[in-house]
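hey so u asked for the seq, here:
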Amino acid sequence: MADPFTVAPLRILGYGYATGVALRFRFCQDLKDACFVVATTFIVCHATYRSLSNEGPVYISVLDTLVFEGLASAAIPPLTTYFICSTTRNWLKQKDGVPKPVYKWLPVTLGLSVLPFLYSTLDICVNKFLDQTLRPLYMP
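ran it, structure tokens below
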């Protein structure tokens, strides 16, 4: 059976960090914090699920899930979103006559719009990276 935490729509909850980073440019800190709570809860639930459903040692399942999610949910997507939002915002600052709604909403819109295209490709890349680097160190 496939891991339900690695397919949409559940997988998208892991992108709460990236969503929070994008929304921080436009909304209050509380909304960003709520997105971070969703992502953290997703990661803990995924690690718990993997520890209960795998045949091998529990600590290896938890470690593997935390390393995977650390890269695929907590590091790469938020950095990508931050880069897109801040680059767009800086580019718009340099332009004269940009309407205020465009300046406010375009960075957030671009940052959020990239996330649906990111998750499946990113998960494959992170799995390949871990298969070739770290997993041989701790997987039997």
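Residues 4-138 form one domain. Residues 47 and 62 are 5 Å apart (CA to CA).
lmk if thats what u needed
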